[in-house]
Amino acid sequence: MKIEEIKIEDLHPEEFIKQKVEEISSIVGTGLAVNALSGGVDSSAVTMLGHKALGNRLKTYFIENGLMREGEPQKIAALFEKLGVHIEIVDAKAQFFKALKGLTDPEEKREAITQTFYKDVFGKLVKERSAKYLLQGTNYTDVEETVAGIKRQHNILEQLGIDTQEEYGYKVIEPVIQLRKSGIRKVAETLKLPKGIYNRPPFPGPALAARVIGECTSERVETVRKATKIVEQELCNTGAFQYLAILHEDKVTGIREGKRDYGLQIEVRCWNSKDAITGSPTRLSYETLDKLAEGITTEVPGVVSVTYNVTKKPPSTIEAI
Amino acid sequence: MKIEEIKIEDLHPEEFIKQKVEEISSIVGTGLAVNALSGGVDSSAVTMLGHKALGNRLKTYFIENGLMREGEPQKIAALFEKLGVHIEIVDAKAQFFKALKGLTDPEEKREAITQTFYKDVFGKLVKERSAKYLLQGTNYTDVEETVAGIKRQHNILEQLGIDTQEEYGYKVIEPVIQLRKSGIRKVAETLKLPKGIYNRPPFPGPALAARVIGECTSERVETVRKATKIVEQELCNTGAFQYLAILHEDKVTGIREGKRDYGLQIEVRCWNSKDAITGSPTRLSYETLDKLAEGITTEVPGVVSVTYNVTKKPPSTIEAI
Asked: Structure pTM?
């Protein structure tokens, strides 16, 4: 199936929403559907579209995979409760860390997360609910990058010829697959999601696992989680497209109280971009870079070095792995 | 033996030179001495002091260890010939790469270079020459950092209780050990060395091996050598204390002509510092950072990402390993 892009200039959000709500209703019929909400703009828009179409026949889960930002599950669940949408938090941390154990190759890590998500966690939830449909926030950039072989996105299955019905027991519906991030933001705003959601910088499908080079142990994820919190606090008012902290596997020599400290390095990236296809590093002031370096080396145990990405996309990508 | 620092404000270069020339003469007597010139300010100053004291009884070698900058041995030899000092280039590349094979731990790499330098290469040269003395450019910061256990400098032996007479067959003379870099620059200038030498940014003892995280193969050293050339060309007029390129072992995802390219990362560091004890990242313009990133990702095969260090020393160190 060839996906046709709807460009931002051709998008009429009200019409788009009406059409997608009708499509979802007609596909699901009187059946049940489930979806997973991560708190990003894509899955948030899909949650609202799904609830408009199906009401209580859509059950929305927040999968706590141990790879999310600090306090994220509770924060997002509370926000949607206010909008009248109930979210169930599913604790699957142990399953994800077990699947990630010993893996260092980025594609193997992504694959482990995909398998754990779709097969172990979602497959089970769908069966419990007797749901036949899964709603998903796949977007047009995900499709492009996966088909081009740049990254295996966690939510591309049918495009790769994987029969979800046969493999996992459900069909996937992807209402925003023709849109890029900018279009989804418009739709999310029109759906009356709060600005904190529709303007939210993108966050990768594999969450903080995409920000850890090398093995994703819970300890290493905790390190990058702490760095992420500092980066997000410091950069949330820059207007940048996306900003992130990456924990490197390489260790570098540092010095603490006059003694050698062979420690960790965090790379900070902050992007100016319209659509994630191309991007350039935000020209942060050195005062801001100083604050980031000082905050991270002071508050995140084990970190002795902070770098800032200065490469454009291409040849870099937005995320490191 | 406790080394007493001579602070820059207490240094009288002419007197210092006179005193050191006398000391070297009196220690070596009518014997022979050798020294190794790397082209840095420390070994260049020592070469001139030694030749003032001993004339042709000091034999100066440039050890081509395969870890130097592009064209460095020939360039430095030609420069000293002009000053009337003959330099013999010794090709020891194969010995160094053999010693470095399979090593990834920074201290093990430094140790392998030290052993190859002092035992295999220098021990042999000293015996061939029947020299009893080795002149060396150890400085006060090297002593401090080694004693503090931050880094094992390649040229600290007696301070660590190693008897070079017994272990390698020669005694080490270290004429500039009481000075920091700024003092040595003054002495080098007074010795009439060219500005390109006395103002030269520091370069680590283990040379480019200190700029390769992970194993130092000749291929990986070639990668960092190419990046170093670009960094030095771009930053030589900044007035910075030191600037360097580091090849990481971590690989990151890049994108080339629309396809995934899992490639290499180069970290650039550029330091403002007086004495290497503390330092802060030079506030390079983003135009310069852009040029560095574009130059390195275009001209150095395999590199898809360039970062810039934004951490002060401490907790960072000047070099990464």
From this structure: 0.83
